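Appendix B. Extra example for self-study. Work through it before the problem class; the solution is given directly after the inputs so you can check yourself.
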Amino acid sequence: MPPLMKLIFSRLALGAVTLLAVSALMFVGIELLPGDLAQQILGQSATPQTLAAFRADLGLDQPAHLRYLDWLAAAAQGDFGNSMASRRPVADLLSTRLANTMFLACYAAVIAVPVAILLGLLSALWRNSLFDRSVNVGALGAISMPEFFVAYLLVLFLSTRLGWFPTLARIDEAASFGDALYRSFLPALTLILVVIAHMMRMTRAAVINVLAAPYIEMAQLKGVPRWRVIVKHALPNALAPIINVVALNLAYLIVGVVVVEVVFSYPGLGQLLVDAVASRDFPVVQAVGLFFAGTYITLNVLADILSILSNPRLRHAR
Amino acid sequence: MMLKTTTALAAPTRRGFLAGAAAGGMALGLGLNTRARAAEPKKGGTLRVGYTQGSTSDSLDPATYANDFMFATSYAVFSTLVEIAPDGTAQPDLAESYEATPDAHVWTFRLRDDATFSDGKRVAAADVVSSIRHHMGPESKSGIKPLLAQIKDIRADGDNVVIFELEDGNADFPFIFNDYHLTIRQDKDGAIDPESRIGTGGYVIEAFEPGVRIELKRRDDYWKAGRAHFDKVVLLKVGDPAARMNALMTGEVDLIDRPDLKTIHLLKRNRNVKIHTQNGTLHYTMPMQVTAAPFEDVNVRLALKHAIDREAIVQKVLKGFGTVGNDHPIASSMPYYNAELEQHSYDPDKAKHYLSKSGLSSLDVTLYTADAAFNGAVDASVLFSEAAKGAGMNLKVSREPDDGYWSNVWLQKPFCCSYWGGRPTPDLMFSAGYAATADWNDTSWKNERFNQLLAEGRSQLDQGLRAEIYGEMQQLCQTDGGALIPAFGQYVSAMSTKVQTPEQVSEMWDLDSTRFIERWWMA
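Solution. Structure tokens for the complete assembly:
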């Protein structure tokens, strides 16, 4: 499939350019913020001499463009340097947080994606039924509330009132897998409730759209059962938009959950990024930011490839 | 369990008791006080704490400590030469005793000889010298550096004695060594390893994930008698107030700091939770720059000081968790507090009287404010503006952005909102924000008599004379100074009823001046 390979390569090249642009934008953004790392860490107790000592120590007295180029040269070779605030290697800082973030994202995705698609298919199957209406109302209700509010409601009912789940999602090395699933159930459920509506509504709409096509009518006239019409005839042709929405939501599960992390004190990448921005810790901000940007780019490329694969008309260039 | 307690209490040698005046003696005294209430400290249990602050950028380097999480860790794992006792006085801690020359110029600290690091090594004078030097000199980036600038020379005299020579006499010098920056680390070739986890405190670090949690375990060979009661301590960073309060309600943590005052009544519904308040040194100020019109006239300052309804601010903004201020920065829990001063209160007639004395018929001023100054500053400013109307003044409230408030508004605008965390002594407080030469003299107030008294009091070792001096300085601040100080805030925390506190706690800072890990226990 040479056209597909060409597409993948061009997308990857574009992705690399995007990452470069993102890193430059982040650098400028941090430079524009008032105060630097020395001021943030020393706070009210800063005096001109301590600030100067701090800056010289960290190389912050160098001109901005030189600092950026230094960082870029090292990063291109895979060395993301040390955190300026804690002096620990960025790779170390990132690894545990990254594992936590991926754990929570996978946890939520593994439940949310199948459930959303199933609910979408069922509500397309029983369109305008009581089931369809109630699923829609429930999903739209969950998505219209801000995620921290959903989280607080879950804490109030499932934790404070009923005492079934812990309010703090504490994950540490000592916790077993089952333990980790139990402790992070509430944040995962919050995320599930937040992302399900989008995917479920798109599945429903895409399938219903295809259901109006003549070949579906043909299948029905042949006497194919209704669920079979949907799964075998309609779904494959509705996959492209569904895949795109799923990819968008997966990206959100990885990069957009800082509010949920805060409510449950979950040690994920979002909190790391917020801390790093607050202390103007440039290497950490860059590493986390690039990871987030990379996630978006990869998932989008993946979605494009999968939609092409799912559609024979796109697979063969005419 | 009981047996274990008694052995642990008796363990640290007779010397500790004979040292008498030292920390050991104080702890013993406390034990006697609380025995009447049958709440004797008990060993054991795990304390889990939900803390507001804490950041991924935290490190064990004492020069970089910037939040409560690290302050508490610092006091638990390391120790200081001097600690501030619950009664507000300085008491020797790693030091056994200290004394000054009559002019308070040269201070000699004698170290305890039973204090050991967690690796078994004894604390030596060289350790102290290197630990203090870590915060001095051009290379240092420590927050306490300005306070240590008064030290001309530190030297070890033998293995047990450290001598400090100061630029000027300072009778309050020992108080500085309570600071969490100045914990004592091991010396290695004339310097300390700032990241080292080896300390002299009652606990050792089992796991540390910056910005997430720290787990501490009690040292079996801790040298200080009657301290460090919990077996284990876990500090968790829980930044969200609702999450913190929920975790306490469901019993996932035993203690939280800074509960949300707006919803604190909900915590009171839970019978297993108690609220703990301390009359701290934290206070909210509205500095007027006395070099700018119209504040250069003392009558205008006095008029404004009588046009603010302090009681309303305490009730409505602080939700009752505070006390009214009297326009000087010395808290009632601090040494040399002047209780004789007449309380300034809301009195429109008096305000009008002072205003007419200044020759003005009406007053138009702008108060710059933002919640960055303190939580509720905007509300307090609006309340002030409404109360001032009653005194015929037009006080315009200008709300400024939170970002950059400290660099764009504070010290820049002639009348704004601010706050001060406390200092342990009047001298430290006045030197930081009220001395003519202070960088942070945010009122530009340069009262000759006040500054003369400040210098006099600093090197004065006679307690009676010092009380007189600081009493007069508080009065000068109140009647002449540019700072309008409407209220002192209380430190509020909440904990499980199982957590026990001594009858008297140190109120200087939150949670027994952040030494709760070593001083509190589990029922």
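Self-check: Residues 1-38 of chain B have pLDDT under 50 and may be disordered. If your reasoning did not lead you there, revisit section 3.
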